Amino acid sequence: MELLIASTIGLLTAVGLYLVLRLRTFPVILGTSVLSYAVNLFLFATGRLVINRPPILDDAAQSYTDPLPQALVLTAIVISFGMTAVVVIIAMGAYLSGNDDHIDDQDGLFDPDKDERGADMGSDIQPGSEESRA
To answer: Rounded CA gap, 46 and 62, in Å?
Structure first.
């Protein structure tokens, strides 16, 4: 059971990081949501994985489930839902004002061949300058 939970947390974290590193706003929003799911699952797993145990009800309970991680996860779900709504509204505003949803909005950055100056992608040296001849 622990291996399954640990693998799921690792997979959700990897997918979330991959999506956060994309250059569009929608995958970044999805990535932060997936990362919050991974954190919620991690918080839930910190309370030890026990089955068929009651929460703390009275002093006579021999074994119990820790209710603190469950309360933390519930709080984290509410906070992540609110933050996702805020980020979606900000992304929609940026898209409507700029007509694109690129994260790093530079001219010519997404042209596969050359940018508007004629330089190769990723190069800060303009063709014809002294630096390009050296």
So the answer is: 20
Residue with tokens 């603190």: 68
Q: What is the pLDDT of residues 13-61, one digit of tens each?
A: 999 999 999 888 888 889 999 999 999 999 888 877 777 777 766 677 6
How many angstroms separate the Cα of 49 from the Cα of each of 17, 39, 72, 81, 127? 26, 16, 16, 25, 62
Distance CA 92, CA 100 (A): 10
C-alpha triplet 129, 133, 134: angle, nearest 5°: 115
Model confidence pLDDT, tens digit, residues 75-132: 999 999 999 999 889 888 888 887 777 776 555 555 555 545 554 444 455 555 555 4
pLDDT of residue 121: 46
DSSP 55-96: BS-STT-SS-B-SHHHHHHHHHHHHHHHHHHHHHHHHHHHHH
- Residue 104, judged by CB atoms within 10 A of its CB (0-12, 13-18, 19+), counts as exposed
- Reference 40, options 93, 83, 78, 1; nearest CA is 78
- The position carrying tokens 């956060």 is 20
